[in-house]
């Protein structure tokens, strides 16, 4: 059955169009495709999907492609046939005309010259001719790939990080979007050194030093880019963190806290002194939550100061200070801030005993302090402070609440939503902490007082169809 007959039997075309196309004989399929596109009701992609159904082959949009060494892309471009991915002993190939024997012969010859694709089984996919041409243009651009092109593409996709990773014979560029790594390009290793060195020059790093980790930064299009290098067996791995300090803050009402949680957190912001701790792993949105809370305060009547490594957003009417290695650290910065008559202090992270003691001391002396801490849940934060040699009495008397949170992909939309728990330090809780009660005893008392755990919040948001159960399994497994 011809493609023309296939379209007729699917009632894509009527009898008149069918008879008209038949008159074109061997060019009937091409003729009818042009007619359908000219009506405006069908795109080239639509025709390619129909052709894939007709041929019983998979359809591909060629969103992600792999390039191969020793492939003569110029010859294949002229024939509109493109190998775009390999797996084990298979190579996947996009073709617009399955009956093009000349294209297939040229492909087989090219694959035989490439070590990675020699003796591989060819699996054909259908793609539109225009899409294949577009991908060839992109491959040609890769020969002149620059850091500017990588950054431009990244800025349009809005990732939090760019990963550039060398392997044997290749290197990959990936973007972390909504917490997950997405492939952007896999390229020949011969281009890696130029890209790596360009980034290191921009970040003012030593390009001759490849055996030790380095970190630096540069600014581009109102964005701060933090560069970290790390030696691996195939060369330096680079990660670029993208910080948009001018980006608008998300309202506390829209990041995922429930109504009763928002009400409680806003009430905590009215306290004159005390310590509010946000905990969770790196990338769980802790600092964003604190920023969003600060935005709810009267920033003109309260002197709000921060000490951060690094500043993620600029907040109006807030005095923000960034840690500068060798010049200002958390200890030096805190001593200085306490002489600046602050009302509210944000300490970016409690990492050591000295910073922990300073945070407690500040909360004891008439300051409302916000900070972050790495722990699996809110109860673990108490254990962490004990490890920093903070006495039980100081923990009990100064902490207002501990919030543990994670970020989970939204089910139906782009972006992520917070799942969280809030441990309120009431009188019963204080007594348990002072008496050195363990985690299970403190948790039992919290539940008796109506504590809603992070796991409870996950289950609630699953029921509300906000998140998928599969996306929280890893979170729950580590609680």
Proportion in β-strands:
15-25%
Major sheet: arrangement of strands: 13-12-14-15-11-16-17
Question: What form results from the Cα inertia axes?
Answer: elongated
Main sheet makeup: 7 strands, mixed
Q: Helix- and strand-based class?
A: alpha/beta
Helical fraction equals 25-40%
Radius of gyration: 29 Å
Number of helices: 19
Oligomeric form: single chain
Mean pLDDT across every amino acid position: 90
Low-confidence stretches: none
Q: How many E strands?
A: 17
N- and C-termini, Cα separation: 59 Å
How would you describe what is shown here?
With 479 residues, the protein is α/β, with parallel strands linked by helices. Helix content is 39%, strand content 24%. The protein has 19 helices and 17 strands. The chain has a 7-stranded mixed β-sheet, with helices on both faces. A hairpin with a 2-residue loop joins strand 6 and strand 7. Helix 2 packs across helix 3 and helix 15 packs antiparallel against helix 16.
Give the helices and strands, then pairings.
Blueprint (H helix, E strand, L loop, with lengths): L2 H7 L5 H8 L5 H11 L5 H12 L2 E2 L13 H7 L1 E7 L2 E6 L5 H13 L7 E6 L2 H14 L4 H11 L3 E6 L3 E8 L2 E9 L3 H11 L11 E7 L2 E10 L2 E9 L15 H10 L5 E6 L6 H9 L9 E5 L10 E4 L7 H8 L6 E4 L5 H12 L3 E6 L4 H10 L4 H7 E11 L6 E9 L2 H8 L4 H10 L5 H10 L5 H9 L2
């Amino acid at each position: 059955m011809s493609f023309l007959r296939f379209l007729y039997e699917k009632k894509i075309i009527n009898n008149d169009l069918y008879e008209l196309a038949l008159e074109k004989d061997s060019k009937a399929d091409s003729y009818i495709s042009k007619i359908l596109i000219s009506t405006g009701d069908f795109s080239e992609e639509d025709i390619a999907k129909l052709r894939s159904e007709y041929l019983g082959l998979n359809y591909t949009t060629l969103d992600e492609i792999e390039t191969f060494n020793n492939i003569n892309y110029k010859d294949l471009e002229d024939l509109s046939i493109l190998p775009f991915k390999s797996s084990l002993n298979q190579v996947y190939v996009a073709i617009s005309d399955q009956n093009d024997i000349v294209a297939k012969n040229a492909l087989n010859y090219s694959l035989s010259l490439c070590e990675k694709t020699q003796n591989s089984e060819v699996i054909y996919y259908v793609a539109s001719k225009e899409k294949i041409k577009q991908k060839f243009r992109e491959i040609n651009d890769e020969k002149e790939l620059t850091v500017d092109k990588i950054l431009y593409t990244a800025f349009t996709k809005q990732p939090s990080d760019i990963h550039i990773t060398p392997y044997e014979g290749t290197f990959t560029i990936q973007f972390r979007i909504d917490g997950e790594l997405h492939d952007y390009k896999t390229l020949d290793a011969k281009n890696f050194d130029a890209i790596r060195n360009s980034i290191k020059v921009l970040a003012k790093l030593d390009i001759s030093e490849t055996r030790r980790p380095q970190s630096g930064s540069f600014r581009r299009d109102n964005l701060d880019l933090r560069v970290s290098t790390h030696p691996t067996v195939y060369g330096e791995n680079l990660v670029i963190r993208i910080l948009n300090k001018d980006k608008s803050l998300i309202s506390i009402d829209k990041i995922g806290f429930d109504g009763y949680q928002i009400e409680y957190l806003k009430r905590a912001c009215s306290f004159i002194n005390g310590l509010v701790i946000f905990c969770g792993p790196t990338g769980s949105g802790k600092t964003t939550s604190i920023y969003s809370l600060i935005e709810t305060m009267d920033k003109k009547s309260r002197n709000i100061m921060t000490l951060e490594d690094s500043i993620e957003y600029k907040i109006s009417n807030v005095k923000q200070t960034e840690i500068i290695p060798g010049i200002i650290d958390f200890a030096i910065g805190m001593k200085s801030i306490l002489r600046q008559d602050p009302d509210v202090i944000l300490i970016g992270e409690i990492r050591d005993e000295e910073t922990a003691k300073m945070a407690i001391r500040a909360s004891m002396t008439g300051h409302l302090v916000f900070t972050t801490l790495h722990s699996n849940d809110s109860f673990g934060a108490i254990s962490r402070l004990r490890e920093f040699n903070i006495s039980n009495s100081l923990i009990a008397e100064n902490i207002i609440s501990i919030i543990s949170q994670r970020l989970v992909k939204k089910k139906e939309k782009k972006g992520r939503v917070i799942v969280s728990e809030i441990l309120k330090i009431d009188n019963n809780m204080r007594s348990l902490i002072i008496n050195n009660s363990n985690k299970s005893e403190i948790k039992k008392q919290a539940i008796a007082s109506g504590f809603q755990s992070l796991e409870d919040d996950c289950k609630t948001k699953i029921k509300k169809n906000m998140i998928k159960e599969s996306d929280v399994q890893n979170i729950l497994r580590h609680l």
